Amino acid sequence: MHKKNQFIVLWTLLVFTLFPLQAFAVDYSISKVTIDAQVTSNGTVAVTENHTYKFQDDFNGIIREIVPKKGTSIHEFTASEQGKELKVEQDEELYNIFRSGENETITIELRYEIQGAVDTYADGAEFYWPFFDDRNDSDYEQMTITITPPADSEKTAFIGYDGAYQTGSLQSDGGVQFDMGKVLAGSNGDVRVIFDKHLFPSLPQKDGLVLADLAADKEQMANDAAALLAKQQVGKSIGNWLIPAAGAALLAFFAWAFSHARKTKQQAKPDTPHFFVPKQKMSIPATLYFTKSSILTPAVTAAALMELVRKQKIEQLSEEKFRLIDRNTEFIHEATLIELLFDKVGDGEIFETKELESYTKQELNHASYTDSITLWQQGIQEEVKQYELYDKHPLLRGIVGTSGLVFGVASIFFGFLELFPMMVVSIIIAIGFIGFCFYSPITYKGHVIREEWKQLRTAMKNLEPTAWNHLTQDEKMRAFSYLLGADEKSTHLTTLSFTTAYSDSAFADFGLFYNPVLLTGLFVAAYSSTSTSASASGAISAGGGVSGGGGGSGAF
């Protein structure tokens, strides 16, 4: 694979690793959620939830997960839309509400009761509940949770945790409303409200005091917030100079790389306007791999066979018949191809094209053929590597690699400080540095090879017979083999027209009976017969809120 392709693949893998994507079967968003929890004097909490979904596709319904806290339970769950009751199927803590449609915005009302959710103490009655937790797979664009007491409460105390922190406001009746705004998937946001104890006369009193515990939580959270703010100031002061400096350095690296590559490529262009066949620096298959495509097509296999004929390792007796002359080859991949065609398919001395068709039609031979082709491709890659056609720049790689790791750590640091914009920018810079760490530009020698063969491909399109006739037989054969392998389809106009015009003179000294459609088609059929494909799937995980409770939303 070309280094450019490797860089693109690496970049893509890094992005998807650092920014994982979660795919849903249904395309939807939840624009608004209101939850009204009416606390009754006997400790039961009657909950009414309204969920507004915007669907961009076909759908069958919505999902609500409600995981009760330890010691509590959910009862009387129902769902409706504009007063019309909807079908509900329960699977443990999951409630599937059936309401099908397409490209609609709907609002579903859910009603249920929580039993055992209020605990009374000497100084107050507490309702402490996670209406969602980190198991939730959906964003809530706008969420409001209202907790209402059974009667007016004069000394209500409250607190919100995580996503609900500092979102609560006291209502005139002593209830509390938490305006949480946007809640991201995977977030926690427990709410805790303490009402006057006398509003729950029938509930048994537990030992201990609860207001002091809530006050301690408030103080601790306030201290944590103050400490976080101080750390954020330090983090911002560091990030405000470090990130711009790193960004400028990264842009400078890329600008230098682009300029250097462009200059080297310009210098490597042939300085003669006359048509010529490049001197032999690599085998034709390796030249095609390096100059045309890292995907070695069946046409390249056909070109490799012609290369062996040119090197007089094999002899073509007819359009469909070849004889092995010499097993001593210059490259391992050439020996691998001979072993496949003459030993596995042929009888050790003669290879006929019809034998390859019969060989690859038998499923038992597919693995053997594929293994040989894979070894042949690997041999070509190894040949290309030995010419050192790419600059490694070890010092530069070390510098940018270290910088990438530094900014990877910095992104974690900014994330802990909840400086999310700086975290995102640091991740992008880290990806840029780490990606640049694999920068391996083509050397001057490599550009010369590419530019020379590019000039050949261009010139072949309108080549004059006189220019062709000035070439040696070896040059004609190399040019023809390269053109064959460079064409993605053996029936390509360039190949056919060139075959008609020049193949006789190209192969005069080699005794060839050449048919590009027949030969390339042979390897295309073999590839098609032995190719297979596979697929895979993935899974998701779960978590929990206060006392094991929580839940979330979805659709199906």
Automatic annotation (TrEMBL):
Stretches that traverse the bilayer: 241-259, 395-417, 423-444
Q: Which UniProt keywords apply?
A: Membrane, Signal, Transmembrane, Transmembrane helix
Signal peptide extent = 1-25
Q: What positions does the domain Predicted membrane protein YciQ-like C-terminal occupy?
A: 301-462
| DUF2207 domain ranges (all copies) | 29-195
InterPro entries from the xrefs? DUF2207, YciQ-like_C
Instruction: Report the Pfam families cross-referenced here.
Output: DUF2207 (PF09972), DUF2207_C (PF20990)
State what protein this is by name.
DUF2207 domain-containing protein
| Organism of derivation | Planococcus faecalis
